[in-house]
Amino acid sequence: MLLHNLLVALFVTTAGLTASGIVANLYRLAKDNSAAMGNRAVYLAVMVVAGPSVLFDNAARARRKKECSNVAFWLAAAVCFYWSLALGLFVVSVALAL
């Protein structure tokens, strides 16, 4: 039973990180193609969903450049995991409702 719950949590977290990555990449594509995307409200709404992917990307770059400590990197990774879990719970619940 514990393994089942762990696998469900891993699946939900992966779903959240996947949704985050998709939204982050779509935003980057739209931002490159349109100058009208400068609206702050749109940016904040997108970052609610794209945040885990963007945060982990920034943390990984900083770690590769030796600009942050291991503790800071793993703290950012833990925040990304938790954020992806919450996002994944929302995504999976919406998918099950459809």
Number of strands: 0
Overall structural class, as computed from helix and strand content, comes to mainly alpha
Beta-strand residue percentage:
under 5%
Largest sheet: none
Shape: flat
Provide the domain count.
Answer: 1
Low-pLDDT segments: none
Q: Helix count, per DSSP?
A: 3
- Cα distance spanning the termini: 27 Å
Mean pLDDT: 90
Residues in helices, as a percent range: over 70%
* H/E series: HHH
Q: Using only CA atoms, what is the Rg?
A: 15 Å
How would you describe the overall organization of this protein?
The protein has 98 residues and is an all-alpha fold. The chain is built from 3 helices and no strands. It has one domain (2-97). Helix 1 packs across helix 2 (40-64), helix 1 crosses helix 3 and helix 2 packs across helix 3 (70-97). The chain is flat.
